[in-house]
Amino acid sequence: MTSFAPSKPPLPAKAIARQHWFPHLFSIPFGALHSRNMDNLLFAGCNISATHVAFAATRVMGTEVCITFDTGLARELILSGSDKASSKTLRTPMPECVRHYRLRLDGEVIAEVTDNLMRHCVHRLPVSRTAGTLTLECLETHGGGAPRVFEIRAYE
């Protein structure tokens, strides 16, 4: 990826920056996403704090999307419901989240959950079993009509 020097004419004839090549992937530190002199301010996307060389790696669409998502996730993890910004946030499950469901293994109910609030649920059987069918019976959502289930995994 090409990196460009900051626009400070005249540009020197020698190399503008020493390029560092990493044999592995690198992460973007959380310190690049928050303001050093203002409380409660996070940056996302292409306005993070980085050198012009680092911007060559960070100013890519996929990376910017991940940074934006991570900034939002960090905000939820850091802030409580008592601050001004998130006190008006509705902390309820998504409407399409399954509230009441049953898991059936060859027709036998192996788990029934009522008042579910989670999007990721794990059920462990007391003993390993071999079966022909695993059925998820969605009985109720949190008001969104059709339930949305991303995937079901079963392991030995």
Tell me what you see in this structure.
With 156 residues, this protein is of the alpha+beta class. Helix content is 16%, strand content 14%. The chain has 2 helices and 3 strands; from the N terminus they run ααβββ. The protein has helices spanning 52-58, 61-78; strands spanning 98-105, 108-113, 134-141. It has a 3-stranded antiparallel beta sheet, with no helix packed on it. A hairpin with a 2-residue loop joins β1 (98-105) and β2 (108-113). The longest helix has 18 residues, at 61-78. It starts with 51 loop residues before the first helix and ends in a 15-residue tail after the last strand. The mean pLDDT is 75.
Strand and helix layout:
Blueprint: H1 52-58, H2 61-78, E1 98-105, E2 108-113, E3 134-141
Antiparallel strand pairs: 1-2, 1-3
Task: Please summarize what this structure is.
With 156 residues, this protein is an alpha+beta fold. It contains two helices and three strands; from the N terminus they run H-H-E-E-E.
